[in-house]
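Hey, resending since the last one bounced:
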Amino acid sequence: MIVLWFTGGAALACLLGVYLPWTAWVLPAGLVCLGAGVVCLLLKKWPPIKGLLLGSGLALVWLTAYGALFLAPAQDLAHRTVRLEAVVTQYPQETDYGVQIPVDAGEEGGRKVSALFYGEDDLAGLRPGDTLACVAYCTPADTIQGEESLYYASRGILLKIKSYGQVTVTPCEGIPLRYAPAYLAEGIRQVIDQIYPPEQASFLHALLTGDKSGLDEVAQNQFNRVGLGHVVVISGLHVTFLVGFLTLFLDPRKKRSLLLLLGILVLFCLMTGSAPGTVRATVLCFLALLAPQLGREYHPVTGLCAALLLLLVCNPYGAANAGLQFSFLSTLGILVFGQGWSRSWVEKVPKRYRPAARPFLGVLAISLSAMLFTVPLSGAYFGRFSLAAPLANLLTSWSVTAAFVGGALSVAAGALWLPLGQVLAAVVGLPIRFFLWAAEELSRLGLAAVDLDQGYYALWALFVYAVVLLYLLVPAKGKRPILPVCACVATLCLSALLTAKTTQRQDLSLTVLDVGQGQSVVVTSGSARALIDCGGTKDPGDTAATYLQSTGGSQLDLLILTHFHEDHAGGVLELMDRVKVRAIALPDVDRDSGLRQAITAKAQAEGIPLSFITQTSQVTLGKAQLTLYEPVEGEGTSNERCLSVLCALDQWQALLTGDMPEEEEALLAARERLPDGEVLIAGHHGSKYSTGPALLTAFQPETVVISVGYNTYGHPTPELLERLEEGEIQVYRTDCQGTVTVYAQNREEP
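The structure tokens again:
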């Protein structure tokens, strides 16, 4: 028990120390806690408080020391151009602008810190152990897309480095022992690529080596939506598979076999990147295997505490790592509740059916208990959680096991004799295809995952937790879960119904989704829905589909595209996979665009009518009228030839112009004689060259909504914001307010 309190104090102190912006308190508070803990230790009183104080004190003192030893050298390099020396620690990964390389870097002859080096494509062939020398500019690794973040610090990465001029590369000789696990992982990936087709190879890269770079964004969204994201993040699941398979051949009761087994465990952990979940599982298995040899009883919660302490010693900022938080909370739920639930459920099954029921009930119990503590965390990080996770894990657990074990065997066989590996790969491909198929099909379910910030789902989640707590805490004999389960299912159905009805009761509403730097606007009138554009930097297809499914089903009456740039149409293909689109309206421009060709080909394959807008057209959507204005220019850039949309209900008007520049806006206003309006979606995400004076004078909006995210263009620009302020126009921004919804009511009705 004292270990539990000590670990709890250390974890809490680290969380406070890394999340609170003011740090001057850390060392004094650590010394005070440490002193108070020593007093309790000498007095031999209050064991829980003693453990809490000692854990907190040591963690805060170590946090200060970590800052001096590791953060300070990085801060000395920040915002400086230096002559740099760096040692490559992992294989390069491709980015949109070159390659990203994990390195240990510093000034010539100076202290090295962990960093990410960004270079040109010609550095893609570097290997761990190679050294670089160049002039480079260093920036702190404390922001992501312009916002402060502990993401990199929690992974031990302290700098981002951009090279200037020539980079001198000195190849390493042989394979350095320190980087041997990275070479082994690369060798495994190369064999996988030789014996598996690309889609299956990308999945096995993640499953066996932790490299998710080959998985496309759509697949990862599908996995996360149905609660299978943990499968492609090396964690306890994979370590369990490995240990279970190895113990078929190695007897852990024999010392030599045990040493070999422990060595393979450590090698696997290092080879896959030593992610928090992998380290946690490795420590737990290590202790569980070692305990009988030492004549000790293994206690899993104590092992969990030991793993957490080890990770915090290596990097106290790891307390802010989302992977660590999810890993430990899910494991805690399994240890506290999952194993007991599994046993009790199996005991309720008639004896003759228990052998068959045990695996299924075990998977279900583990899945539900793992979610018990992680659902609030998922809501905090992602604003949603997966309802399909228990079903998805139940259906795919066998295929994951077969893919992991079979994949490892096929790689080993392929390394010895390639044809044998290819034969095994053909067999192992069956469970891989099943897993990918199941994830894709389950992700299409309307309520596979729900947004907690939509409708009544947050209230439903609170109700479920209240029911679970009452069930666990209220003493009673022969408690049966059927009643609380039925209550949770019934209230979920009620929440979905009320959410849909609340959305559909509006005569007209526009919801500008937060898709980062892009645009995606849902237009709703009663039960009819249209979507104008679907692009951006925050998973636009997944965001739009989840919103639509969370608020009223998986059908879209009309998809309107203003033009074919990624920030306006990049998510359409994923949207069409998830939601049934009944019709698409689009401009007849950019015929050579690869995105246009992909969208039209998919629509034709699925029998979706395409309407190319070459003249102004009107569409009825519920009680509302949508006017689709043809592009004002026959030639010019894609932005100049955007489709525009006017959404109207009685005298209430809202206008969207895509990325249309102000010259074309003026032509549109003159050609169409635009009415006075209420809402304008700012053109080109707040560019100073759009939403010009001519359009503002003609349309006279009361409100402007800017769909914008982190960008390097300066959107929304000061010039635009000044124009809107001079016109006394109310402004909403998705980068500040998140998703924005505006409503209109038919003024003819009371």
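The chain has 25 helices and 26 strands.

Sorry for the duplicate.
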